[in-house]
Design goal:
Layout: H1 2-12, E1 16-20, H2 48-53, H3 55-74, H4 79-89, E2 95-98, H5 104-108, E3 115-117, E4 120-127, E5 133-134, H6 136-146, E6 158-162, H7 171-183, E7 186-190, H8 201-208, E8 212-217, E9 229-232, H9 235-244
Parallel strand pairs: 1-2, 1-7, 2-3, 7-8, 8-9
Antiparallel strand pairs: 4-5, 4-6
Helix pairs in contact: 4-9, 7-8
Length: 251
């Protein structure tokens, strides 16, 4: 029984790394990028070099971000986020690494310093020159009125503090994630297709370092052949079941 195996592994492991992707947040109304209704079906991504060198590319990027801004801003953690936060409170999780930019793990109760956001956050806007950060609502409101890509007082281009295509990954966050992966004896990938590199290398490093690897997702993933245990289904159903499991040796 897969849930029983997961519960037992959580109890027995000394260092648990959870790696999450877009599939954990679709239950909060946030669309994924690559699914049948994914955002890339309607929008072509703007590459970072184009953003930095082309006014029209910056305009296109901000129009794309504006379309989904209020949906991101108003989204609430769902039962899967809350289940992971509860496992953290119980001392069952040592590290949480996410590809998501929605901040819902923190809103569910994870201390911000314990969540490694590999792709940044949609809840801040950052100047690409001076690196000052801003609350996003006023910036989005100004863009919605003018449709002119916003700039910082220093003259630098403003962009949500997320990693765009072609933009270097944050070195410190990757370092923290890979250090956690090397220590883990259990790694759980939850709601990710595991197709995006280098983020997907994090659970793979844990597996190659000896961790038991559980892949939980609705649909196939790029790591299915690597998994020691594959759990198919909606994570918003599976994770609450883990919390409430009443087998012979429950959490």
């Amino acid at each position: 029984m897969p849930i029983h195996t997961l519960v037992q592994r959580l109890k027995e492991s000394r260092y648990v790394l959870v790696f999450t992707g877009a599939g954990i947040s679709t239950g909060s109304g946030i669309p994924d990028f690559r699914g049948p209704e994914g955002l890339w079906k309607r929008w072509q991504p703007v590459y970072y070099d184009d953003f930095m060198t082309s006014h029209s590319a910056r305009s296109k990027y901000w129009e794309f971000k504006l379309e989904g801004w209020r949906q991101f801003r108003d989204a609430k953690p769902n039962v899967a986020h809350r289940a992971l936060a509860e496992l953290d409170r119980r001392g069952q999780l040592q590290s949480l690494v996410t590809q998501n930019i929605d901040g819902l793990h923190q809103l569910a109760g994870h201390p911000p310093g314990r969540v490694v956001e590999l792709h940044g956050t949609n809840r801040l806007v950052e100047c690409q020159s001076c690196r000052q950060t801003f609350e996003p609502d006023p910036v989005f409101d100004a863009f919605e009125r003018s449709h002119q890509p916003p700039v910082c007082s220093c003259g630098g281009y403003l962009k949500p503090a997320t990693v765009s295509f072609g933009q270097p990954m944050p070195e410190e966050k990757m370092r923290l994630a890979l250090e956690s992966a090397a220590q883990a004896d259990l790694v759980c990938s939850i709601g990710s297709t595991l197709e995006v590199e280098p983020a997907a290398s994090v659970p793979r490093v844990a597996k190659s370092s000896g961790a038991f690897y559980i892949v939980m997702n609705q649909g196939a993933t790029a790591h299915d052949s690597l998994a020691d245990l594959r759990i198919e289904g909606d994570v918003t159903s599976i994770l609450p079941e883990v919390l409430s499991f009443r087998g012979s040796d429950p959490l």
